[in-house]
Design a protein that fits this description.
The protein has about 375 residues and is of the alpha/beta class. It has twelve helices and twelve strands.
């Protein structure tokens, strides 16, 4: 993510708290029932919709909808076939261009990252936006993923009445993830404002090989839950779960969501990913979030835009990957001499992909900080 939206992202964890702590790892409340989508046989799917505007699509229909949103398979009863076909071709090209990166992320994680992580702990990814790609590709063994961003949640479109331009906008919204490997916050502020993030999250899981079994969205507060399996899972393997919450993590935002951290802590401790986080955790406006992450994270996986390095020099076991290059515009004043010196004193392990705001592997770095007991 980038600057402007991350400044608001503070409030994103508050809603996430109510959702992601006791409730996010439990069940979203639902009451009334309605039919959503057409499905392969045209029968539709029962979706529950409570006062909080929750919509639920489950079973085989959830996977059909996810693959339609991903541009993989058409829905027989869906509207806008011409626009969808153009979007599908665009996404095929984009994912072909990203395939080598995804393979590199998965291979490196399997050999270098996952052996460093305590088993079973959920992943927390603050300031994520709808970046399910890196959460899933880097943390293939995590049963639960919690993403928090400023970007809103809107209902998915009715396949029989798709708004004009929906797939054009979805493709445009996902472009930076493939081109830059991160979302630009100011661009996201407009890209996801009308349609929200649920479509992008479901599409990404489907494109990464997931068989989606649940798509659940709630508008007030903004939240998404997705569950999925993969074809290689054994029959008894429980589905993986991703929860997204639209919340503001600034000190001011947390005043409006004062239960968030308490509720979220009920699901911890966490492995925390901080990537392209606009250096917000070094600002006075985000002290509560920084302190909470230091207390509730068993492991931090981050670039230099995460928790400031000087706060990790004591009490954390550190592993260095790649090459530290100070940030450029618009973060040129956020260089960290102590981090540069720490890299210079060591021989970091290679990092075979770009990470954070640098778009080439030879300018990228990653730090794994494990809390010492």
């Amino acid at each position: 993510m980038t600057i402007a939206r991350r400044e608001l992202l503070g409030s994103a964890l508050a809603t996430a708290g109510a959702l992601l702590g006791r409730r996010a790892f439990g069940q979203m409340p639902t009451t009334a029932t309605r039919v959503i989508g057409g499905g392969g046989g045209g029968a539709g799917v029962a979706a529950e919709e409570p006062a909080a505007e929750t919509t639920r699509i489950s079973g085989p229909e959830a996977n059909r909808v996810a693959r339609w949103l991903a541009g993989l398979d058409p829905l027989p009863t869906a509207d806008a076939p011409g626009e969808w076909k153009a979007y599908a071709a665009q996404q095929d090209t984009a994912w072909r261009s990203t395939a080598a990166r995804v393979r590199a992320l998965r291979a490196w994680s399997g050999s270098e990252l996952l052996p460093l992580l305590p088993p079973g702990l959920p992943l927390l990814y603050p300031f994520s936006g709808p970046d399910a790609l890196h959460a899933i590709a880097l943390f293939a063994d995590r049963p639960k993923l919690v993403l928090v961003g400023l970007e809103p949640v809107r209902p998915l479109p009715d396949p029989a009445r798709v708004p004009d331009g929906y797939f054009d906008q979805l493709g445009s919204s996902l472009a930076d993830l493939h081109r830059l490997a991160f979302f630009r916050t100011r661009i996201m502020a407009t890209d996801f404002e009308d349609d929200g993030v649920a479509g992008a999250l479901a599409a990404t899981i489907a494109r990464l090989g997931g068989v989606v079994t649940l798509i659940e969205t709630g508008v007030s507060p903004g939240r998404v839950r997705l569950t999925w399996t993969t074809p290689s899972d054994p029959p008894t393997h429980a589905p993986r779960q991703l929860d997204y919450a639209s919340v503001d993590l600034s000190n001011l935002g947390l005043l409006q969501r004062h239960r968030f951290f308490a509720d979220l802590a009920a699901g911890g401790p966490f492995v925390t990913l901080l990537k392209s986080a606009s250096f917000l955790l070094g600002e006075p406006r985000f002290t509560q979030t920084t302190q909470w992450l230091l207390e509730q994270s068993a492991v931090l996986v981050q670039d230099d835009s995460g928790v400031p390095f000087h706060q990790l020099e004591h009490g954390w076991a550190l592993r260095f990957f790649g090459r530290y290059v100070p940030p450029g515009h618009p973060f040129a004043d956020r260089g960290q001499p102590a981090l540069a010196a720490a890299f210079a004193r060591r021989t970091p392990s290679p990092l075979p992909f770009s990470f954070g705001y640098h778009t080439t592997a030879d300018h990228s770095h990653l730090l794994v900080a494990s809390k010492e007991h």
